[in-house]
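Sample entry (366 residues):
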Amino acid sequence: MFTLWRVSPGAWASLGAIRFRTRTPALVALALIAAAALSACGGNSSSTASAGQTTSQTSRAASHHAGASRASRASRAAAPPVALRYRPLYALPAPLRDPAYATVGDGRFVMLGGLDAADVSASEIEVADLHGVVHTATLSSPQHDAQAALLGGKVYVFGGGDTTELDHILMYDPARGGESTVGSLSAPQSDVAVTQAAGTAYVVGGFDGTNYLDTIVAWRPGTRPAVVGHLPQGVRYAAVTVAGNALIILGGVTTAGTSDAIYRFELGTHRLRRIGTLPHPTEHGNAATLGSTVYMIGGRGPSTTAQTAAVYAVNPLTGRVRHAGRLPTPLSDAAAVTIGRAIVVAGGQSPTSTQAGVGELVPAGA
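Predicted structure, serialized as tokens:
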């Protein structure tokens, strides 16, 4: 948060590949009889096991082909990515970047805290829809580099900081207003990525003031935070979203530099695996899910002025990345939320200034 310098065995053998030497009519007859027997047992004339192939080899080959078939079916199950176009909506009352944000229902979203145009931590809470800001409130203290999730109709904000990292979990009730502290993380941390699934918030990575964190933390209201997984290394400013039964974690910055990794974390088994690579290393970007596709929106490289306008579609099963659109200006550190069939992008940082624009990415044909 405070580092603007930022640092196969055994393939099936066909009869044509088995070089029978037809020295006598008897051998030919035996081969024909064997082929007929295999065909009667479910084989076919173009691909059969040789007489020397064991049952275990046949079983392994069948297992391999079944696994490949499952992977192929899973790949086909994901709908093709939809190209997006940007449509401007309105401007916020003031430029803003690095807020915590979440959808709150009824076509609305909320942004809490962040940094203003002078790089000063903000304390404003702004509830907005597709037409403008509809309600404002104030946090008890300014902060930025936190993130939020909507659980049970209430918005929970995790970590963040101002002059130092914070460990609190704040609750904001968009129906009644008001903010309160309802828990704490196991350590102060800023620069986190947060998303939610099935009533649980997931806090990915972060910075405790000294260390880059490699943890994936799960939290539900009324419980203590629990570490449910680890990344290969600590990461800050990653982008994360939920797709189906998995978290998709993209980019971020590590002690080795800006990351281009795409990870899939299974919520049922807590298994983490790398599934792909971004076209270029990206930190401070946003991820959102629209339909069955994950979109990586903006972000930047290791330089504070290395923003990108690119929007990429990521297949959450295979990790395949395709170009899907562009923002009107290179942008990092924005708020990005899915509302209906659109991804709303608000505020952010361009190479020259903090932004106040709000727009939506919609299917190109809409």
